[in-house]
Design a protein that fits this description.
Number of helices: 6
Radius of gyration: 18 Å
Structural class: alpha+beta
Number of strands: 4
Helix content: 40-55%
Oligomer: single chain
Strand order of the largest sheet: 2-1-4-3
CATH superfamily of the largest domain: RNA polymerase sigma factor, region 2, helix turn helix motif
Largest sheet: 4 strands, mixed
Length: about 190
Amino acid sequence: MYRATEISRCLICVVPADRAGALLAPLREHFAGEPRVAVLVEQRALSSEREPASLGGARRHQRAPIAERDPKRALPPELYREARGVRLVQRLEPLGRVHEDTDTIELARLSRVKDPAAVSELWWRFSERVHVRLRRRVGELAAATATPEVLGCILDDLDRYDPEQQPLTAWLDAVVDRYADGRVQSPY
């Protein structure tokens, strides 16, 4: 079982169970100085995401939105080759009222410095725009599963956003387009 402090951290480095013997210790050592990063072994089976809702019309538990970040940006180069299957997951905090009046440029700045409440507010404000553009580019089915990756791309590239050069909406559109251009698009 995971300790509550590990789960509540901002970033979770998820190590595939079959790679834990080789990677767990070096990754924990690498992230030891990062209190907001937990290194955990994947425990869920792939099919657990597709469990049917229980009988009686009860709703399935909805997981918090996540961003699939680029693990290579956080890993030491000597682990790149060994780290196949490693995921860097950022759980979004529940939306609160902290940044409801914060302007967009300030939200982007605060998100760059890893303010979890700002990241959640920024995503809440722009997620529909991102979803619509993504659906147009890759189709409904692919867009439904790509959201965590796209959010990760947005957060990974946010340090490149310059409000003096373009509005955030245009920048977001460009990030979604780059993501879509890199995907193999289905004819369906």
